[in-house]
Amino acid sequence: MTMVSGRSDLSDPTVSAVSRREEFFAFLVLAIFIWPIVAVGVVGGYGFLVWMLQVVFGPPGPPH
Question: What is the 3 state secondary structure string of 7-50?
């Protein structure tokens, strides 16, 4: 297998099938497990940040 500009030679069908299967499996792991966990963490972290800022500085709105 030769490397040309970072790409493998895809003329061998077995290498191509294995590469596609591995890439599809990696995509499924990312799409089903990793990104949902990251999304929940980001939204939860933002909510926690807003909550802590309101604890320290008070709720938004005009002063009483």
Answer: EECCCCHHHHHHHHHHHHHHHHHHHHHHHHHHHHHHHHHHHHHH
